[in-house]
Amino acid sequence: MNEHLRTALDLAASQIPVLPLRAGKVPFGNCRRCQDNACGGRPNMKNPGPCTCPGPCHGWAAATTDPHVITSGPWRRAWLQAEAVAYHPGGAGLTVVDLDNADAIAWARENLPATQTVPTTRGEHWLYLGAMQSANAVRPGVDIKSTMAYARWLGFGTGTRTMTYLPDAVRALAVSKPAAPRSAPQPLTAPAPSGGGQCRHRTPAYLERGIAMAEQRITGASEAVHTTVYRTFLAVLSTHGRCGCLTDAHVTRLFTAAQAKGESPRHCTDAWTNARTRLGL
């Protein structure tokens, strides 16, 4: 097993979707039957389209955490040719602020909250917990890589800082006009479950990614918000509700996301209670 494949499997085990990069550190191009998206394409991770191509030929949309796919014949051949490992930050509940030069780094240090940083060939990657829309050239030398984008895997850095939750200052970089003002969310009215079961989480980052992805799922709902909130609460509780890892702070983040979409505190509390009841918590 080569080094890139081993790295990919380690990342996939931590629920970070991966893909191989070929010479030039770009994704593998479409195979013949998928050329120019003749297969139907894979426009986004939630609706990947009808393509059943077994190879990693759809760029960021091919990123996966499935070890059987990663080690399959077409992927294994790709790893043998790969020059680097990439990942889909948005799929891992992360946002990468790609700073391409010293001026961009200096700007970030003055304007963005400090977080975990990773050195790159020409600059730095600043890693934040939480996903958002990707955008290129939001400032000179600054790109945002999150949903529907890939970033080269360079590790989580060697600094002493912990990863900061995605701040409004980063989100604002990709917004063309100011968002409409929102009413302040009401205080938390539902407690986190006390748990007591065995914790299955290998690292705190696993829980943080889960909460960040849940927030993103709620924030991205364009219809059936009530249903989306309930199903998201149910998914979070089914994964994290029995081992005592969830705190009131985590629940507050979920309620805040739901209220920002127009849900009332009562609806949030009812959805949380119903989800706990269904799971027997």
Word description of this protein:
- This protein is α+β, with helices and mostly antiparallel strands and 281 residues long.
- The chain is 35% helix and 14% strand.
- The chain has helices at 3-13, 67-70, 73-81, 102-111, 168-171, 204-219, 225-240, 248-260, 265-279, and strands at 18-22, 26-27, 84-87, 94-99, 116-119, 124-129, 135-139, 142-145, 151-152, 164-165.
- The strands form 2 sheets. Strands 4, 5, 6, 7, 8 and 10 form a 6-stranded mixed beta sheet that branches. A 4-stranded antiparallel beta sheet has the order 2-1-3-9.
- A hairpin with a 4-residue loop joins strand 5 (116-119) and strand 6 (124-129).
- Helix 6 (204-219) packs antiparallel against helix 7, helix 6 (204-219) runs parallel beside helix 8 and helix 7 packs across helix 9.
Quick structural gist:
The strands form 2 sheets. Strands 4, 5, 6, 7, 8 and 10 form a 6-stranded mixed β-sheet that branches. Strands 2-1-3-9 form a 4-stranded antiparallel β-sheet. Helix content is about 35%, strand content about 15%.
Key features of this structure:
single chain; 281 residues; alpha+beta; six-stranded mixed beta sheet; 35% helix; globular
How do the strands and helices of this protein lay out in sequence?
Elements: H1 3-13, E1 18-22, E2 26-27, H2 67-70, H3 73-81, E3 84-87, E4 94-99, H4 102-111, E5 116-119, E6 124-129, E7 135-139, E8 142-145, E9 151-152, E10 164-165, H5 168-171, H6 204-219, H7 225-240, H8 248-260, H9 265-279
Parallel strand pairs: 6-10
Antiparallel strand pairs: 1-2, 1-3, 3-9, 4-6, 4-8, 5-6, 7-8
Helix pairs in contact: 6-7, 6-8, 7-9
